[in-house]
């Protein structure tokens, strides 16, 4: 009976210490920007590895790095009316041929190896009507004029 209790305590200890440590390690890894592609007016695609995991971390990463992204990569690249749309994609296994259904292909690269799997992790858009919208897997958030970020209700 005592051996089982020691195993249970050891497993509990590992779960309590190792899992949060692993989560912390994942959240502290720097984002790597592999490439930036500019599509038609106001649309940009950013290929990344190690993007933040939670909605809050993604939004905070954008707010902290938006000036650097503008200076280094020219994003967001606004359309003449001020509208822009930036999408962050997981680079995953790299560029691929178009072959598979529904890959995202970039016209600023020569085929055949100019596509990625569509694995969107985050996007930011700006328009006159809606303002700045952050889109994550879990829904949408809007930045208010005072800088406060609110989650939009599902329709």
Structure notes:
The chain folds into two domains: 1-29; 31-151, no CATH class. The strands form two sheets. The chain has a seven-stranded mixed β-sheet with strand order 1-2-3-7-8-9-10, with helices on one face. Strand 1 (32-38) and strand 2 (43-49) form a beta hairpin. It has two helices and ten strands. The chain is 30% helix and 33% strand. The protein has helices at residues 2-28, 55-73; strands spanning 32-38, 43-49, 84-90, 96-97, 104-105, 113-116, 120-127, 131-136, 139-143, 149-151. With 155 residues, it is α+β, with helices and mostly antiparallel strands.
Present the secondary structure layout.
Layout (H helix, E strand, L loop, with lengths): L1 H27 L3 E7 L4 E7 L5 H19 L10 E7 L5 E2 L6 E2 L7 E4 L3 E8 L3 E6 L2 E5 L5 E3 L4
Parallel strand pairs: 2-3
Antiparallel strand pairs: 1-2, 3-7, 4-6, 5-6, 7-8, 8-9, 9-10
For the secondary structure, the number of strands is 10
Structural class by helix and strand composition: alpha+beta
Helix content: 25-40%
What radius of gyration results from the CA coordinates? Answer: 20 Å
In what order do the strands lie side by side in the largest sheet?
A: 1-2-3-7-8-9-10
């Amino acid at each position: 009976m005592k051996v089982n209790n020691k195993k249970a305590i050891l497993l509990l200890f590992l779960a309590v210490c190792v899992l949060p440590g692993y989560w912390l390690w994942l959240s502290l890894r720097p984002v790597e920007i592999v490439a930036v592609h500019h599509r038609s007016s106001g649309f940009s695609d950013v290929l990344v590895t190690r993007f933040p995991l939670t909605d809050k971390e993604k939004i905070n990463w954008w707010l902290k790095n938006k000036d650097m992204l503008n200076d280094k990569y020219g994003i967001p690249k606004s359309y003449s009316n001020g509208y822009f749309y930036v999408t962050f994609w997981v680079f995953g296994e790299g560029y691929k041929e178009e072959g598979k259904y529904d890959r995202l292909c970039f016209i600023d690269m020569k085929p055949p190896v100019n596509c990625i799997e569509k694995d969107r992790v985050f996007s930011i858009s700006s328009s006159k009507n809606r303002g700045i919208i952050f889109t994550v897997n879990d829904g949408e958030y809007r930045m208010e004029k005072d800088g406060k970020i609110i989650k939009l209700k599902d329709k």
